[in-house]
Design brief:
It is built from 4 helices and 2 strands. By secondary structure, the protein is α+β, with helices and mostly antiparallel strands. It is flat, with a radius of gyration of 14 Å.
């Protein structure tokens, strides 16, 4: 990542996506989604309907590591897109009724 313009190299993005794909096949990930809970909204969702979300998106410099990956429902993943959690805090607060 170039610290001056925030650009992430396309090769780096491909590498991280490949790592994420590999982790989706791991027992670690299968145990995470088996709980059936979205990390963000806490709604119960079938394991098949959970997606892998990068807390810090790859496009923002995030890595495909266990500490940066959480299961989330498609609705939350689509709304979060490339945002950091602090950038969509209003949405998260709305889910909590605050």
């Amino acid at each position: 990542m170039d610290p001056f313009n925030g650009y992430i190299d396309e090769k780096q993005i491909k590498r991280e996506r490949l790592k994420a794909k590999e982790l989706r096949e791991s027992q670690w990930w299968k145990r995470r989604v088996a709980k059936g809970e979205c990390h963000w909204c806490k709604n119960t969702v079938s394991a098949a309907d959970l997606t892998m979300d990068h807390i810090v998106p790859i496009s923002r410099g995030g890595k495909s590591t266990k500490g940066n990956l959480v299961p989330c429902c498609k609705e939350c993943n689509n709304k979060k897109k490339y945002l950091l959690p602090m950038e969509w805090e209003d949405y998260l607060q709305g889910l909590k009724g605050g």
